[in-house]
Design a protein that fits this description.
Bound molecules: pyridoxal-5'-phosphate
Distance between the termini: 17 Å
Shape: globular
Strand order of the largest sheet: 7-6-5-4-3-2-1-8
Order of helices and strands: HEHEHEHEHEHEHEHEH
Radius of gyration: 17 Å
Length: about 230
């Protein structure tokens, strides 16, 4: 318990310092990433002040769902298969990993049938790493041009997973490019799009991400220890 609390405090302090270096005073949401973490420890993090938790697999999220404190918002941050969305319909505050028009369309349809609007982020893979999911910038433009027709989804921002580098500085250009795309879209004022969240930065690279404009970081290891 004390360890988790201390880890959260340390992450918060590093976020504050990164914001100072970047001359920012807006909020950065810390999502505690809980894959492989049992509900009891998740609830310890929530008691220690975490308001947002992130799971990356539908099955794991469902298996813990009933035992996680309802005080936290739930984010799905990992790849989502279309046929799995029905299981989490209405359960998430935000789905970070929408990476195709087919998935978007499916989420929209099911949300419509159930009379809800589902909040999502569009996941980008701008470094072009083959091992990662995500839209190219061309695919993003294509989807944004058609987004008006999807009335039961609301795009709240963008997400990316930067490549892993020992040298964290190497991630900076990825975060800079994301921030630029985010700002351009925000200016455009597209229907069904409300660019509020830029979800980027993990345990290894969140300080650089915050320096470059991230306002939502996804932190597993630095809070719960290594998996
Ligand atoms: C696991 C995971 C994280 C957190 O990773 P850490 O390096 O443990 O902080 C963030 N985002 C996604 C999509 C993940 O799957």
């Amino acid at each position: 318990m004390e360890k988790i609390r201390q880890n959260i405090e340390r992450v918060k302090e590093k976020v504050e310092n990164a914001k100072i270096r970047a001359g920012r005073n807006d909020d950065v949401t810390i999502i505690a990433v809980t894959k492989t973490v049992p509900p009891q420890r998740i609830n310890e993090a929530i008691e220690a002040g975490i308001l947002d938790i992130g799971e990356n697999r539908v099955q794991e999220l469902l298996s813990k769902y009933e035992n996680i404190s309802k005080n936290a918002k739930i984010h799905l941050i990992g790849h989502l298969q279309r046929n799995k969305f029905k299981y989490i319909l209405g359960k998430t505050a935000l789905i970070h990993s929408v990476d195709s028009e087919r998935l978007l369309e499916h989420i929209d349809n099911l949300s419509k049938n159930n009379g809800i609007v589902t909040d999502i982020l569009l996941q980008l893979n701008i470094s072009g790493e083959e091992s990662k999911y995500g839209l190219t910038t061309a695919q993003l433009d294509y989807i944004i041009n058609k987004i008006e027709r999807y009335e039961n989804i609301r795009v709240r921002g963008l997400m990316t997973i930067a490549p892993f580098y020992e040298d964290k500085e190497k991630t900076r250009p990825v975060f800079q490019q994301m921030y630029e795309i985010f700002c351009n879209l925000k200016e455009k004022n597209v229907k069904n799009v409300k660019m509020e969240y830029l979800s980027m930065g993990m345990s290894n690279d969140f300080e650089v991400a915050v320096e470059e404009g991230s306002n939502m970081i996804r932190i597993g290891t630095a809070i719960f220890g290594s998996r």
